[in-house]
Amino acid sequence: MNQQSATTTTTEDAGRYGLPQHALQRIAEAVTLAEAKTSAEIRVVVTRAPLVQHPFFSILWASLAALVLPWLIVLAYPMSALSALALQSMLFVILAAALLMPGMAEKAVPRLALKAAARNAAIETFLSYGIPQTAGRTGILIFAAARERLVEVVADDAAHGPLGAAAWRDICDAVAARAREGSLAEGLVAGVEKAGDLLAGPLPRKPDDRNEIPNHVVVL
């Protein structure tokens, strides 16, 4: 099992982070067409749920700032220890309240933490949806975290072996390029089409090939 990731910059509105039914159908049709060229199995999953608990990082940054900033102020404006502790408490309350506000809480999460969470979520999804259970170990997952604007590709051994990490980067780039233009749906279609083209060479469709993984998009 191997993985690549990329960042997108899009939101697709149906709910706030969802995909309208016609877009889901278009992606499913792209999967069907891609799999007509290859024995590989392609699964697309989109999650709208937050990948991390935002309040944790808001409280973390407020705590760190409240620990450090008062002592810098004390260096410039000497005060009693009791006053410094009171200042710490006041700063923590103010900063925590500000960072817990809608919009600010998400910005408080480090990008590295989001990417790590996306990787973990993609691997968990890959396993929980039975993608490693294909007969030829040819399954791949294209996983999009709509809220965080991240995309991950996880590939099983037989798919990864002949192509390598560069192929999965190409798929991520295909999704991200169209997503930056404003459409996550079109980005996912482009990623699926790219996957079909890349996989068709080393893993061509066989006469007795059967569809082992449903082609519809899973929206979490």
TrEMBL record:
Residues 118-197 form the TPM domain. Keywords: Membrane, Transmembrane, Transmembrane helix. The chain crosses the membrane at residues 56-79, 85-105. It comes from the Bacteria. InterPro entries: TPM_dom. This is Membrane protein.
